[in-house]
Amino acid sequence: MPIGPLPSLPKFRTDLVTRRLCATAHLDPWFTREVLAEYAEDGLQAVGLPVGVNVIALVRHARLSESRLLRRDRALAALLALLLALLATVVLSLSAGRTPVATGALAGVLAVFAAALVVVHRALWSAWQLALELGDGQQSALALAPPVDPALEQRLASLKRVNLVVYHESVAAQNPFVGSGWRISETVWTPINVGRPAKDAAGNPQTPIPFTAADLHGQVARRIAKASGLDGLSVRNRLYVKGHFVSQLPGALPDPTQRPLSVIDSDWVKAGAAQPTSGLETYLCLRAIGEGGKVVVSMHARAQLNHPLLTWEINAYVLPPLGTRFLRPNRLVAGPLRLRFRAAEDALRTTPGLLFGSARALLRRSLDTASGARALEKTRREIRKGYASYDYGTTNSLRERAASWTQMGFAERRDAATYFKLMVQAVLSSTQEFLEAHRIDTFDLDAQQQQIITTQTTIFNGNISQSVIGGANNVQNNQGPVAPPGGGSSSGQQSGAAAPAATP
User: Fold this and answer.
1) N- or C-end of the chain: fewer Cβ atoms within 10 A?
2) What is the pLDDT of residues 100-123, one digit of tens each?
3) Preceding omega of 484 cis (within 30 degrees of 0)
4) Which residues contact 370 (CB under 8 A, 6 or more apart)?
5) In a 10 Å sphere around its CB, with 0-12 CB exposed, 13-18 middle and 19+ buried, how is residue 369 labelled?
6) Which segments of the chain have a pLDDT < 50?
């Protein structure tokens, strides 16, 4: 008997990761600074790929958080100046025997503390309200914060179409696929002979159609989304370039004193597939994002054609869920009255430190900005004068630094293995279809398909808490704790900052 319509199970929001990052930007000033430094401020190094993140929404919320903190500190600095003046009045009045004046000044001191408490509470409550709205509200994260500079938003929007990735020399040996996360497989498939012509129905050899690796990349990119069966699979050919080499790639660095472009003419991308050189190679990049964006699987494939042999280089990576640092917004969930009490308690606890540290915070912010600007200008002068070659590459991405392998549960490991298996199968079937269309015998490929699938998709065996996962059914232990390739200041874990820094 057929089963009738079934109820729909609840699902994670498709923008879950973006919303958690935006909420954290309101609760963690250190993370706010990190977001703006990477995506919104002047610089020279390439920007890491914002995989599965609405980076425009994230920058909007980071700017909103920063402006709120700046207004708070300025108001507190003004109150601090008034407080010091009132305290001086109290001392001078008492020494002169003017008790009524001293009493009035002392009342003013109490009023200043009350005003400071209101300032801190308002900033805190505003941040909490937005964090709660980002957690449970229906409005999009993009709509909950005002727009920033249109030119900046246009540049951030171009990151969705990235076809040029510039990586730093320091990560070239370990992980040029910056921003992709933890490596789960790295292999080169056994070469297949593409020099044998296919036969027609009568058994006569056909004339093969010549092709290049770039032709194969293009065909597989067009075919693979359908062949994989993965909804929302992202497929794009990208040119990966070492940071020192990007200045030699025409059009990639219009201004040597600015960041390299993230989108270049597609002919250069095709050239990187057909005629790769050391440090300039094109990869077919496949990306599948799990439910809610919690886990992201990326596969970087490169066809190598040394006639008559063809092989694929396969590199697969996983971005785990966000670390515990980004679960803090969830802890704000409470009844309205209890949340009000918590806000008042936090404001009482942090107001004295924020009040007396406000002038120092403003001064430190100004000094850091000026110091960064001077260092950047010094580097630009050296570039203009040709004193040194500059490495424009990035070492990782904000999403990669925010991830934590310890958050990879059973469901995430299972989904990652499934996505990778489907990607491998899609590359194989698309390659076979391409070779058949070019009248090439696929006997070698047919013989290898089952072996490739068997040995390169069972990737999550054993204890993974201190490991990276290798191909061919094995786990390779790291020396020391797992960390995102290239390192980073987020590391997905709770920041060790002092208590006042964690309160907007």
Assistant:
1) N
2) 888 888 899 999 999 999 999 999
3) no
4) none
5) exposed
6) 458, 461-491, 493-504
